[in-house]
Specification:
heterodimer, A: 651 residues, alpha/beta, FAD/NAD(P)-binding domain, TIM Barrel, seven-stranded parallel sheet, 20 helices, globular, B: alpha/beta, eight-stranded parallel barrel
Chain lengths: 651, 275
């Protein structure tokens, strides 16, 4: 067996070591385009978990790697002249150059053939070919892996500095061009990595896209002079870059297999790239050992083991990249909430898990929200709106009521307001006259009443053609219902393609001023109702020709200006054939954007089933009130039916 | 969690006699359902015809399509076939529907591949709804409907029209992920209660290599994915038990295990593993 590994980065070298350890009869060569001492980037980050895996896989290199490690457990957030710290996060980092030296040395000890300055023009001839040649992999081009490359996040540039940070540091600097942020961490006793990031518009406004390397370095040095304590930045081909998110439909083709950045990247803001790459090497070597060099079986094992974990990490990395892209919209948050929002940005840390790592931090957050030195978690903090005081953030009970008989979805619906906490006034529009929801949704009644909408397009299959709404009558009905309503919060339903929602989208309304009638209704209800007033809104239509999130946020802003106190964030259902993105908490990111970009308090649901989710959402300022889907508590479990049944059948 | 068993309608060498015998044994055994797959261009049996036969051979188990490719059939005929199996079996049909994955099936059936999602939506609205004034009988009342698929629109169709979700198989964590999406869609569409969650897996006890080879062949149209499906074939009692436990923990309501070897002995070995 002979193996050719293309790329002498951490993944390629580490795999070479593990394969030689596995079987000394195997010839391993590593082909690298650059010289042995050429390095790009400065430091790389590892977690405790990865270190454990490295120790088990090769104790010799583990010892050397950990000898030169920088370790810390603190994250510092420098924001609006304040510094907040969170403890209990175990990180370690090493100079990329040092890591490569250790791995190269170990390769030589194990008689791996290291060939530097070799440009591969075609697939090298070998029994097993490994593409460990990074995000711009050449090996990928020689085979068919179904590679997809998408740019994610903001513009960024890597520097080094001789200021040694003593924590992972996030720093933010407002400029006349917009907000910049830096990610900094130490990687040995002399140096730190220093990454500067800003949205593309800010990058261009500051002229960074046209500056020479030294000029942009000087710009960043001056901008973050405070954080750098007067120390220098060092460049190493430090250009402003776009981050490519790479995915592959399959990780192997014939006798060729990919690992590390060649097969998947994860945005630098969660610092997982090298960790993922070296874990790939461990998994691939283990699969080859288990399958006794049956390449195909080993490749399948390797991919099946790694893909789910990589997918989750990439998802978290994308959330984190998007967060830093819209960072400017959080500048109104209190520093403690800003910091908590940052720490929980990728969904991997929640209020509960942070509470285990750093109880002091969550206590500070809780007491800021609760207004007392010792306060319960965020979901239990009080909230006040127009003189109505909520004792917690999750006790809202929804009740929907149609303002007119023809505005009901089904005949079973009651059409008189009840004294519930959140009373939603709705008119079903073209989604009216359907069967009760236990049978299904949007199933037309055989003898239904006529429905109305701004256009004559039916909602779903077999739906009735809508007639023209009598706007004056609808307006009067909303006002009449509002005047009679008894509730803590009154809500106008403008979501999900019901009558008012169907005015808001160009998919369902051909007029230019689509907010005209919904705003009239809102203003009239506002005049008739003195308490808290919410508008339920599909912030995006989840449809290529429908309202985008940006348009939805603009509508939310218009609703706030017209008197809405709260936006109840929903998405989709404007049309029957939308393309929803369902998962646990699927509305949380939308609510975060509406609340922080349209500056309006929000209510959010979206299949949230735990108090921890509510605590994290409220604590991070992603919503003000939360609607939980609490599963029925099941204490007793039914006896296993199968065994019992079998006994009865045989008796 | 209930456990159902697949009939080997797509496995090479399965005779009509074996299929009916298999259904009879499953009905006398511990399974709560027998289920079939759907494919046109392959040496396989038509799902509704097989379930009609199984209806006659059984008295207790549910009869499930897991799944049938709705848009291959015209809406009224699909409804009529389903209602007929439902009637023949005394109301035991579970109708799992999805859009299908192979263009060659659509070509062979002479049906447009494009627009299949929209057509499935119409079929579901027709079968579940009350739009033909009872002209196309027999009665469809009480047909349990499942929808399969992993796209956002598939989850929405499931939550809008069906009683539950049919997953396409894989490790328990893949099922758990899909189940979370199905529950989120159900909640978004305001359906009361919870959707029924059906999962599936493949097994072979006797000649596992033969079973793996069948899976590689059956799923050859997925390219490299076929190897991953073959790698998931459950080939020991221990693997079956772990899989069952994993699905139960992930909230599965009914797990259907499909054979990959057409031998009645396989069914007996599966019962032993589950006992």
């Amino acid at each position: 067996m002979n193996v050719a590994i293309v790329g002498a980065g951490p993944a390629g070298l580490y795999l070479a070591i593990l394969l030689r350890k596995l079987d000394r009869g195997v010839d391993v060569r590593v082909l690298e385009r650059n010289a042995p001492d050429a390095t790009f980037g400065f430091g790389v980050v590892f977690s405790e978990e990865t270190l454990g895996a490295l120790r088990d896989a090769d104790p010799e290199t583990h010892l050397e790697i950990t000898d030169t490690f920088a370790r810390w457990d603190r994250i510092d957030i420098r924001y609006q002249g304040r510094e907040l710290s969170s403890r209990g996060h175990s990180f370690s980092a090493i100079a990329r150059k040092r890591l490569l030296e250790i791995l190269q040395q170990r390769c030589r000890e194990l008689s791996v053939a290291l060939e530097f300055g070799v440009e591969v023009a075609d697939l090298p001839g070998a029994d097993l070919v490994v593409g460990a040649d990074g995000a711009n992999s050449l090996v990928r081009r020689f085979c068919d892996f179904g590679t997809k490359v998408q740019v994610e996040g903001s513009k960024y540039v890597w520097f080094g500095t001789d200021h040694v940070f003593d924590a992972f540091t996030f720093a933010f600097r407002e400029t006349e061009h917009g907000l910049f942020n830096a990610h900094a961490y130490p990687y040995d006793e002399r140096m730190s990595t220093f990454i500067v990031e800003c949205p593309e518009t800010v990058c261009r406004a500051a002229g960074l896209d046209e500056m020479e390397e030294q000029e942009s370095l000087a710009f960043c040095e001056q901008l973050f002079a405070n954080e750098l304590r007067g120390r220098e930045l060092f460049s190493n081909r430090s250009l402003w870059l776009d981050f490519p998110k790479i995915t592959n439909q399959t990780w192997h083709d014939g006798n060729v297999v990919l690992l590390g950045d060649a097969v998947h990247t994860a945005h630098f803001s969660i610092g997982s790239g090298t960790k993922l790459a070296m874990e790939d090497s461990i998994a691939l070597a283990a699969a080859l050992a288990r399958r006794r060099w049956d390449l195909n079986a080993a490749f399948v094992d390797y991919e099946l083991e790694r893909a789910p974990y990589v997918e989750r990490t990439q998802q978290a990395a994308s959330e984190s990249a998007a967060y830093f892209g819209r960072i400017a919209s959080y500048s109104h948050l209190e520093p403690i909430q800003f910091a908590f929002n940052l720490l929980t940005r990728s969904g991997r840390i929640t209020h509960a898990t942070l509470g285990v790592r750093d109880p002091q931090f969550t206590r500070a957050l809780d007491s800021w929200l609760g207004g007392r030195p010792v306060s319960p978690p965020p979901a239990f903090s009080p909230f006040e709106l127009r003189g109505v005081r909520f004792e917690n953030r999750f006790e809202l009970v929804e009740s929907s009521v149609a303002v007119t008989p023809d505005g009901r979805t089904s005949a079973e619906e009651i059409s008189r307001p009840e004294g519930k906490l959140l009373l939603r006034l709705m008119h079903a529009g073209r989604r009216g006259a359907t069967q009760p929801r236990r049978l299904g949704v949007d199933l037309p009644l055989p003898d239904g009443w006529p429905v109305v909408a701004p256009t004559k397009r039916p909602y779903g299959p077999f739906g009735a053609i809508p007639g023209k709404p009598d706007e004056a009558a609808v307006l009067d009905a909303f006002v009449a219902a509002a005047s009679e309503a008894r509730a803590e919060v009154l809500e106008i339903d403008m979501a999900h393609g019901y009558l008012l929602g169907s005015y808001l989208s160009r998919l369902t309304n051909d007029e230019d001023d689509r907010l005209r009638f919904p705003l009239r209704v809102l203003e009239a209800v506002r005049a008739a109702w003195a308490g808290p007033l919410a508008v339920r809104l599909s912030v995006t239509d989840w449809h290529p020709r429908g309202n985008s999130v940006e348009e939805g946020i603009a509508i939310a802003r218009a609703m706030r200006e017209a008197g809405a106190d709260l936006i109840h964030v929903e998405a989709g259902q404007t049309v029957h054939d939308d393309r929803p993105e369902y998962r646990r908490g699927f509305l949380t990111a939308l609510s975060d954007r509406v609340r922080n970009e349209a500056s309006v308090p929000t209510i959010v649901g979206g299949y949230l089933t735990t108090l921890d989710e509510a605590n994290t959402i409220v604590g991070a300022g992603r919503a003000d009130l939360v609607l939980l889907d609490l599963p029925e508590t099941q204490v007793e479990r039914p006896l296993k039916a199968s065994a019992q049944l079998l006994g009865e059948l045989r008796a | 969690m209930n456990i159902g068993v697949g009939l080997p309608t797509t496995v090479p060498g399965a005779t009509g006699e074996l299929l009916l015998d298999w259904a009879r044994r499953a009905d006398a055994g511990l399974f709560s359902s027998v289920a079939v797959l759907d494919r046109v261009v392959y040496d396989s049996y038509e799902p509704f015809a097989v379930l009609a036969g199984a209806a006659a051979a059984t008295s207790r188990v549910r009869l499930a399509t897991m799944i049938a490719i709705g848009p291959l059939r015209s809406t009224a005929l699909l409804a009529k076939q389903a209602a007929s199996v439902h009637g023949l079996s005394g109301g035991r049909l579970t109708l799992g529907l999805a859009v299908g994955a192979r263009t060659e099936d659509f070509e062979a059936a002479g049906v447009e591949h494009k627009g299949r999602g929209k057509r499935l939506g119409e079929q579901l609205a027709y079968i579940r709804g009350d739009v033909d004034g009872d002209r196309v009988g027999p009665s469809r009342d009480g047909i349990e409907i499942l929808v399969g698929g992993l796209s956002g629109p598939a989850y929405a169709r499931m939550a809008r029209y069906a009683d539950g979700y049919a997953h396409n198989g894989g490790p328990p964590r893949a099922f758990a992920n899909a189940a979370g999406r199905a529950l989120a869609a159900w909640s978004d569409l305001g359906r009361p209660g919870k959707p029924k969650l059906w999962g599936q897996g493949y097994f072979a006890f006797g000649d596992a290599d033969q079973g793996d080879a069948y899976l590689r062949d059956y799923y050859a149209f997925t390219g490299p994915f076929a190897e991953k499906i073959a790698a998931g074939n459950l080939t020991s009692a221990r693997a079956v038990k772990d899989y069952v436990r994993g699905y139960e923990e992930a909230g599965c309501d009914e797990l259907v295990l499909f054979p990959t070897v057409a031998d009645a002995e396989e069914l007996e070995r599966l019962q032993e593993a589950l006992a």
